[in-house]
Amino acid sequence: MSEPRRALAAMPLFAGLPAPEIERLGRVIEQRTFERDQEINREGGAWEGLFIVKSGKVKLSKRAMGRELTIAIMEPGEPLNIAPLFEGGPNVFQTGAMGRVTCYYLPAEAARAFVSTHPTVQSALLRALNVRIRRLASLASEMSFTGVSGRLAAWVLEEARRKGVRTERGLAVPRDLSMRELASLLGTVRRVLSRSAAELRREGAIEVTPEWIVIRDPERLRARAGER
Amino acid sequence: MRASIADLQAIPAFSKLDPRALALVQGAVVERTFPPGQMIFLEGEPGQGLWFLKDGRVRIYRVSAEGREQGFCVMRAGMCCGCPLFYGETNPASAQALDTVTMYFIRAAAALGLAEQSPEIGRALFGVFANGEKILSSLVVSLSCSHLAGRLAHLLLEQSQEPRARPHPQSPPSVAFSHQDLAGLLGTSREVVTRSLDRLARARAIQLGRRRIVILDPAKLRAMAR
Predict the structure, then answer these.
(1) Of the candidates A74, A76, A82, A58, which has an alpha carbon nearest to the alpha carbon of residue A11?
(2) Do A127 and B93 touch (CB under 8 A)?
(3) Considering the entire predicted model, what is its pTM?
(4) ipTM of predicted complex
């Protein structure tokens, strides 16, 4: 298998497709590259087809009362707007590149035809929708039950679980989001986020450096996040 | 109890299925009835499958560690809930019958099996999930609007779009919720809901009737939801 075909076969959505099918897909799928902050899909705009992140990170968000509310950050292998695949309708989410991003792109008609004839791809997409529904459900309850510092605490803990680095001072989480991006992810604005971060710092739960957030007191952070 | 083909066709997700696919669904579906107030499934328990609502209303909500409730949505006839379709996942929320409720239930494994057997059914399930995503993302947006009167306005507007909100084409749309139902849906107390409703009524956006809220001025309501 050629290098580009191998990369395609490595996408979780296409896992298990036989080589000739990957070959066929390779002939219709395109690649698009986006620069930082460039729009990929417009919320409410016509669905152009299936975008799958190949490299880089993509922000999935909604407009909320004049603000941007980030729902999730999509990583390589994950599909962007998928709900309109069969029944049409507008894009549910705004999506934008968080750095340089390359996406696989299947135009609407080709996507519909390919997915309809490949049950494994169809069930992988169903699974992706399911994951997103769960993410939305937990976002909804976080937003109604916990204040911003609680949400920040939960986010730091989750990041630490995923990519924490053990240091002398404690488990450290790399700060790869700007304050503005993190505020949007936590459903708030920068000013409130800075205040909440200062609060957790004063309590000795975390320490903030330009590159890292270090967990100084995991017990306290867990209590703030409402974890027992 | 077995569901009739005609009843299944009344569920929007199944309305476009061909007779063969419908017969497959019919073979997998169980009909169940719940009295008002009864729990249908509980948050945190393993997900059993998909529930389609035939009759009545079902409230979907979550409870915080401190015992506060947050309503997610009120399901109406034809809607589906129960997204933890996949193995090993737990219910993200609880569901409670508001009226006498009749539901069709399909076990998760059976639903996935049907989707593999018939791409048509797979597409129908996809539509159900896509709808769930739409409902939840609009809920998240409304939650980010922090004042309650705004969230209330948003909820009333959404509910007033339903066909049942307008029994006569000439009359203005109205929504049948008690203050207690609304409090549960918005995650607050009945007193706070009553105060916010009074505020919307004073602005002449709505009119309060007996267990009915009449939408007088949708444009004003939209402005207040912002």
Answers:
(1) A76
(2) no
(3) 0.71
(4) 0.71
